[in-house]
Amino acid sequence: MRLLIMHGDLKTTTRWQVAFGARGHHVRRARSIDSAEQQLREDRFDLLLFDFLVDGQSCLSTALLAQFHQPHILSVLVSDRSPELQGDMYARLASLRCILGTETPMADLVAICEELVQTARKDRVTLPPRRKFAGSAKLAALEALYRGRKGAETDFDDRSLSAPL
Q1: Which of 15, 50, 86, 142 fits a 20 to 30 Å CA distance from 110?
Q2: C-alpha distances in angstroms, 23 versus 30, 121, 142?
């Protein structure tokens, strides 16, 4: 998993970076809005782990930027701010999957984030391989008919020409 941590507290970001790194995840951290936005433009992430405010600035705009540049990204808000501030975050940020308090144990934080990303990867819609157009035999027959070719190989009878395509 590739994650970007956006938080203003150096001790917190270091603890998170060590915990996720110990599990083999690629971790980048940003301690300012500008740094986070630059990294989001330059690198691809699976998860944005962020606080509500960094240096007195709301991180919502940065999370929205992440969602715009990387539609697959998931967001997890970890904050000790009052729930009133967090109430409508789900409505504002489609990528937000979870709001946790800063007191969340490190092992739980890592497990929650891993499960969210793993589940999202499984849920991504994969298109089935493109199949041959079912009407291609009729199209080939029409082309042969109009070109006046004789003996064109077709797998239909004459009645299929009168049927709508």
Answers
A1: 86
A2: 20, 18, 61
